[in-house]
Write a structure and sequence with these properties.
The protein is α/β, with parallel strands linked by helices and 238 residues long. Helices cover 42% and strands 14% of the residues. Helix 10 (191-199) links the parallel strand 3 (173-179) and strand 4 (205-211). Helix 7 (98-105) packs across helix 8.
Length: 238
């Protein structure tokens, strides 16, 4: 987009032709300084000041102000930033569900994404793509393809946001797999599998938890296995 704007600006030579507005993005700031060098003026729209809070008849004590900060939307919608941070902290190591966060906070999904981007830009949080999950799914897919077989892979998620990371039919069995990068088994890992088994009782289901731990066991009809042993445990029809 910036290279497109650069071409138009250079051609028309008109000042103030475009106004680009948005939250501060470190990567975008760098691109602007390179692609539109000498062609831009940057105006900073600052958060509210103490005087502006007073003029808006917003009364907060010092501790409340220090914690809430000065972003206008926090005061416009009476949002508790502490609640947002608590919800984020409770989801460490989990997939971000923007819709669920939005519902719990009473704000839009877009707003949640903006707040997450602020926390990332401020180096308060870091989001990671699910590399371990991708590794396991890719490995399972390769095992079948290398054996001349193709399978369809599915994700299950119910209305309560309980998930099973991977579902596929193999032989007479429906395989339900939960994938965790943790090295330690936790009983919470079984929640999504239990939910799925309750609604799919007519199927012959094999349940697995694949994780990075080395202690393999069977718990409540679910095999807990190390990711290195996928072939021996799953890739068979017995």
């Amino acid at each position: 987009m910036l290279s497109y704007i650069q071409g138009i600006v250079d051609e028309k030579e008109t000042l103030g032709l475009y106004i680009l507005a948005g939250s501060h993005q470190l990567s975008l700031q760098n691109e602007i300084s390179q692609s539109l060098a000498g062609r831009t003026g940057i105006l900073h729209l600052l958060p509210l000041s103490l005087k502006e809070l007073s003029q808006a008849n917003i009364s907060k004590n010092l501790n409340e102000i220090l914690f809430a900060g000065f972003y206008p939307r926090i005061y416009k919608y009476n949002i508790d930033p502490k609640r947002f941070l608590q919800l984020c902290a409770a989801r460490i190591g989990q997939t971000i569900d923007y819709s669920l966060l939005a519902n719990e906070l009473g704000i839009s999904r877009h707003t949640v994404k903006e707040w997450i981007s602020i926390l990332k830009a401020s180096f308060i949080i870091t989001t990671l793509p699910p590399f371990f999950e991708n590794l396991v799914i890719s490995e399972i897919n390769k095992l079948f393809l290398n054996n001349g077989e193709e399978i369809k892979l599915y994700l299950y998620r119910d209305s309560n946001q309980l998930e099973v990371d991977l579902l596929f039919q193999y032989g007479l069995d429906l395989n339900a797999i939960e994938i965790k990068s943790s090295k330690t088994f936790q009983s919470a890992f079984l929640k999504g599998l239990s939910s799925f088994n309750n609604i799919a009782k007519k199927y012959k289901i094999k349940n697995y938890i694949i994780y990075s731990g080395t202690h393999e066991q069977e718990i409540k009809g679910c095999k807990v296995i190390n990711y290195n042993n996928i072939t021996d445990n799953i890739f068979n029809k017995t």
